[in-house]
Amino acid sequence: MAPLQGYAHKGTMPSILKIIFVDDDPNLLSSLRRMSHTKREEWETSFANSGAEALEIMAQQRFDVIVADMRMPQMDGADLLRKVAELYPDTLRFVLSGHSDKDLILKAIRWTHQFLAKPCNFSVLHQKIQSSLALSKALDDHKLHERLSSIKNLPALPQSYERLCAELESDEGTIKSAAKIISSDVGLTTKVLQIVNSAFFALPRHIQSLEQAVGLLGLETIRTLTLMSGIFNDSKGAQIGAISVQSLFGHSAKVGAIAKKVAKELGLPQETIDDAFFAGALHDVGHLIILHEFPDELKEIQTLQSQEGLTATEAEYACIGVSHSLIGAYLLALWGLPHSIIEAVAFHHEPAECYHGEIDIAIVIYLAEALAVTEQEHDYDEFVSRLDMSFIERIGIEPKLKSLFAECNIVAESQESAS
Ligand SMILES: [Fe+2]
Ligand SMILES: [Fe+2]
Questions:
Q1: Which of the ligands is closest to the CA of residue 350?
Q2: How far is the CA of 252 from the centre of ligand 1 (A)?
Q3: What is the full DSSP assignment across 306-324?
């Protein structure tokens, strides 16, 4: 089984976490020291004022988490985390960065599990660390490893997507060069243009070229569609009960499009709106693995759902010991996708388990899923019946739920008419 950086702790999770904070600002370090003291029953903390000092301390003892400043003299946060990833792949890596650190963020993105904006409220930092560990713990499940080890060929990250990301992250990357990469694969181009022209996007005119598509939908959306097309293109045309590659593809595109709308309605930043589409498009990739690798068990799962009234997740645990959410999250972690996306996929049916005090992508996908599967148009009660209302009230979005339903139901309708 391939190593899963930062998500595969050996044995059970420690009851006291060992965390190292690295920052060249002595005032920030001392305030972190003060605040961490209030968590001394959960955290054992160390502090370093440079990357070199952090590496020296880390050579002496194992740490569960490192939280590093981005802009530091000599060794910046990106270089430090790259070294930590190589030397101690099991350590979860967080970066504290300011708004002016855009270039460094790009440099650090491969090595970082989560970015935290400066100034960072200590309780947010605490909650984010705890929720990352919840994901780490969920993915460290022994049954999950056992099941996935039996699969000889877990799908690889589609090459076209990798090439596109490398191009976009390079200095020379342009819309033209990105479109050229996708165009070099005729099947992929056809699939991307097919989705772009479906009612999912409700575009005012027929789009014939990738450049036009990028111009109208933005590079991030096209990047996600490339990944999605790669994943669903490679798949064989299997079908078991109502689940087929085609139905999963349609459902995923629908949840992605609704998630984008939900994120917008909730007033989340553009970056989160793009991520919501990305996570929505991939949220059920675990179902695809179950469809191909565990077809007999899938039949049993469907029987349990229809005869005993179990949810998909309950039936999956009963038949294969793991859920499609965790299988999908595990695959995305293997592909090295961002932590926030993996977390959203892992908890898209139970966002309360990773809630850290903010509306995150897992919650957006949870709402989008409920909207996407609400069968009766305009049936607000059915939508609400699919939600854990005590959680919705706890996170404070209950007052917005009606308008959210009204706005995002329109997306669902236009998609329905397309399929
Ligand atoms: Fe779903
Ligand atoms: Fe799901």
A1: 2
A2: 7
A3: HHH---HHHHHHHHHSS-H
